[in-house]
Amino acid sequence: MVKNIVILVLVVLAAGEGYFLMHKSNGPMVQGAERENAQQPRPSGAPNRPPILGKGDKLMGSPLEKFAFKIAPGDIPPESQAKLTGFAVKSTKLADGSEQVSLTPKDADDQFQQYTVKPGQVLYFIEMTGSDDVGSQDLDKNYRDDYGMITDANGVIQ
């Protein structure tokens, strides 16, 4: 009998604590990282990260567009070349008219990337954080934040 009373008291205390926490936060209870993110305002100087886009999304006109620099087909424009710090680019024309583009990192810890750009498509280099590049050393200090993205002629991601 005493055991049942102790269990009942513990259940009531737990329910009361949950009720208190829910009303103290003026909303539903959230766990772990969700609570941290929900309760901490974004610092005013925090960078706004562009959304993650995928196949079928339109690159052109999206917030990610300002990070996109054309690298194929054809010659790499000077503005794009300046964003390729830490990478060597090699383009090879294929028999079907496509262009195979390899992005080889100059640091072995970064990731090799290779793309096949078909006629009518465009390959962009997405330079997410230009502040991590050390141009004088041709070094990209933030690995795997820069990548290629292929679009069709209308800017839709392939």
Keywords:
single chain; 158 residues; alpha+beta; three-stranded antiparallel β-sheet; 23% helix
Characterization of this structure:
- This protein has helices spanning 2-24, 32-39, 78-83, and strands at 68-72, 87-93, 99-105, 113-117, 122-127, 133-134, 139-140, 146-151.
- The chain is elongated, with a radius of gyration of 25 Å.
- It is of the alpha+beta class and 158 residues long.
- It starts with a helix and ends in a 7-residue tail after the last strand.
- The protein has three helices and eight strands; from the N terminus they run ααβαβββββββ.
- The longest helix has 23 residues, at 2-24.
- The strands form three sheets. A three-stranded antiparallel sheet has the order 1-5-8. Strands 2-3-4 form a three-stranded antiparallel sheet, with no helix packed on it.
Principal-axes shape call: elongated
Number of strands: 8
Distance between the termini: 68 Å
Share of β-strand residues: 25-35%
Mean pLDDT: 76
State the secondary-structure class. alpha+beta
Unreliable spans are 19-46
Gyration radius, rounded: 25 Å
Into which percent range does the helicity of residues fall? 10-25%
Largest sheet, order of strands side by side? 1-5-8
- Helix count, per DSSP? 3
Sheet of most strands? 3 strands, antiparallel
- Output the helix-strand order: HHEHEEEEEEE
